[in-house]
Amino acid sequence: MRAPKRRSALWVPLAALLAAVTTVVWQPVPQVAQAATLTTPPLPSLGSLPSLGSLPSLGNLPNLLGIDFSNILGGLFGGGFGGGVTRNFSGNFTNSAGTRSYQGYVPSTYKAGTPVPLVVVLHGCTESAADIRSLTQFDKLAEANNFIVVYPEQPQSANYLHCWNWFLPTDMQRGSGEPSIIAGITQWAQQHYSIDTKRTFVTGFSAGGAMAAVMGATYPDLFGAIGVGSGLQYGGSYVDPVKAGEQAYRAMGTQARVVPTLIFHGSKDTTVPAVNADQLIRQWQTTADWADDGSSNSSIPAAPVTTRNGQVPNGHAYTVRDYVDSHGKELAQFWLVQDMSHAWSGGCTCAQYADPQGPDETRAMYDFFVSHPKP
Q1: Given the DSSP bridges, would you call strands 148-153 and 195-205 parallel, antiparallel or unpaired?
Q2: Looking at domain 87-370, what is its CATH homologous superfamily?
């Protein structure tokens, strides 16, 4: 008689597990924007449900139907299986300019109805959304600081090397090409999560950094501040920075405003030489000169107001220059990392283009962002 009792006792946790499966898999799917498509797990048939002998151990729960039960059960049972509900999301966004996929991260501390910041992160050439997630570790920072991250992805069909086409005229304008798609993904996140629209930001690495500069010029009403890691100015390196600054201002149209910018670059970058960072500073100073009163009248101080030097223990030295706008408010920060090549400073060695000996670029980006909400 003891064996039957043990078997009946097994049904208590198994019943809870199957209830969780039913709740998650068969719950009504929330409506999403017409342009967005979320991946939804297929409904299993009764015959496909696991037998008692094949039910996974608690350590393998994340593999069941592709759902992370360790987090779901953590929420149901007070954090006993990983503490709180942490979610990854992914999908596709489509508009008249095309379709792009995206990935995202929602921290376990997120609560619907309480607005949190949003950071859009753009990968570089030869990278994917998954690669830039690993390289920058923005998910880890988002978990610690309660903000949401979204990672748009450029397919090979749009660019053979997966580069964002920041240099093509159609991809440098508001309401056109890739800027409209990235803006659409950003707005989708704002509509489906509780996002503080004044604390929505965009950053990127290399070609992604160049596209972040394009987003600052084409959608200054959407992003409070931008970050450019080892990237280029609006229009590219062959354009005079003063001319590029005016062109960026023209691209802003009626939404023109001063856009705070953080720039990170390595002194020994041979892929995108450090002179591009100098051009970026001059370009955004010129854009701000136009944007603050609609004319070019040298209203922006050209020289930095402060210069700070730092040293990573057993790593690279670096210099931080601070620039201000016509009202004395911070306009830009420029971090020049000595002896760093084309890399994300402080990046994870688990990914390409990482230099862990540099200062934490991800942390510096976020700190700058939250200090510069959109007016």
Answers
A1: unpaired
A2: Alpha/Beta hydrolase fold, catalytic domain (3.40.50.1820)
Separation of alpha carbons 93 and 192, rounded Å: 13
> Structural domain boundaries of the chain?
56-85, 87-370
Instruction: Tell me the two tokens of residue 192.
Output: 């489906």
- Separation between Cα atoms, residue 86 and residue 194, nearest integer Å: 15
What is the sign, positive or negative, of the torsion defined by CA atoms of 64, 112, 153, 348?
A: negative
Contact 178, 213 (CB under 8 A): no
pTM of the model: 0.79
180 and 243 Cβ atoms separated by less than 8 Å: no
Please give the distance of CA 161 from its chain centroid, rounded to a whole number. 20
pLDDT tens digits, the chain, 375 residues: what are they? 444 444 444 343 334 433 333 333 333 333 333 333 333 334 333 334 343 333 333 333 333 333 333 333 333 333 323 334 459 999 999 999 999 999 999 999 999 999 999 999 999 999 999 999 999 999 999 999 999 999 999 999 999 999 999 999 999 999 999 999 999 999 999 999 999 999 999 999 999 999 999 999 999 999 999 999 999 999 999 999 999 999 999 999 999 999 999 999 999 999 999 999 999 999 999 999 999 999 999 999 999 999 999 999 999 999 999 999 999 999 999 999 999 999 999 999 999 999 999 999 999 999 999 999 999
Task: Measure the CA angle with vertex 197, ends 290 and 143; round to 5°.
Answer: 120
If one counts every other C-beta atom within 10 angstroms of the C-beta of residue 133, the result is 23
Tokens of 33: 């924007």
DSSP 314: T
